[in-house]
Design a protein that fits this description.
The protein is mainly alpha-helical. The protein has helices spanning 8-36, 41-46, 50-59, 62-96, 115-129, 131-134, 136-168, 181-198, 215-237, 243-258.
């Protein structure tokens, strides 16, 4: 998405940092409020949807609790739209660079957005959501798989940056933590590794075939298939990322900085 942002070299890291910082503070505030208004702990733990039980105990009114919980729909909608935007741009860029069929890289002349790439993640998620009807364990496995894969992508990016810092050195950027960069990268890798292990844990005990967390076996299968496809075809046929696009984004950032 950096390709669509002006002054991407400066705007994107600021957006990432302040998003994490502000959401962390707000999440901490929400947790304090929930704990303060928790009420009967056993009732909340045993409830199908604990947040509804907590709001009902706090307000003493089913209508007020319903109104408060309905506000979560606004948050969910905003998160969903952001996820669709991110996934669609990844799909489009991957198709543009030859990783997916070029059909997905089409830009609508009317809407000026990659409509086909937008519909791909929507349709895939809708199909996966249907698993919840037949098996909650299957649906939960894909949810855990998404988190596991996401943190794996973080680990790859951070590892590359840490290696560059230690082995080659990186140019000092306008948005940089300076000497704190390496400790932050190391901490991020440790935290990411810890969370990747947590995502593979079962949600309930005792573990049975119905509640077993299948995220790790599915993830391992996807990784193995990906590696085989890389050596069998992609290594010789995929030209790599479009470096002209990257150079254009960097040149635009430098131009805006000078201006």
């Amino acid at each position: 998405m950096s390709e669509e942002v002006r002054k991407a070299r400066h705007a994107v890291p600021r957006a990432m940092f302040w998003t994490v910082a502000l959401n962390g503070l707000l999440a901490y505030a929400i947790i304090l409020v929930m704990l303060f208004c928790l009420g009967d702990l056993d009732a909340a733990v045993n409830a199908t949807f604990p947040i509804i039980e907590i709001c009902t105990q706090a307000t003493g009114s089913v209508k007020a609790a319903t109104a408060m919980v309905s506000g979560l729909l606004v948050v969910s909608t905003a998160v969903t739209l952001g996820s669709i935007a991110s996934a669609s741009r990844l799909t489009w860029a991957w198709a543009r660079d030859g990783g997916l069929p070029a059909w997905f890289s089409h830009i609508s002349s009317r809407h000026r957005v990659p409509v086909r790439s937008i519909w791909v993640p929507i349709v895939v998620v809708m199909c996966l959501a249907c698993l919840n009807i037949g098996s909650y364990a299957a649906f939960g496995a894909f949810v855990s798989l998404a988190s596991l894969a996401l943190f794996t992508s973080y680990a790859i990016a951070i590892s590359c940056m840490l290696r560059a810092r230690l082995m080659e050195g990186v140019p000092r950027a306008s948005w940089s933590f300076g000497a704190f960069g390496i400790p932050i990268n190391i901490f991020a890798l440790v935290y990411t590794g810890w969370m990747m292990v947590i995502f593979c844990f079962p949600q309930y005990l005792p573990v049975t075939g119905d509640n077993f967390n299948y995220a790790l076996p599915i993830f391992a299968f996807v990784v193995i298939v990906t590696i085989l496809l890389w050596f069998a075809r992609a290594r010789k046929n995929w030209p790599g990322l479009d470096k002209e696009i990257i150079d254009t984004v960097l040149a635009d950032a430098d131009k805006n900085t000078k201006d």
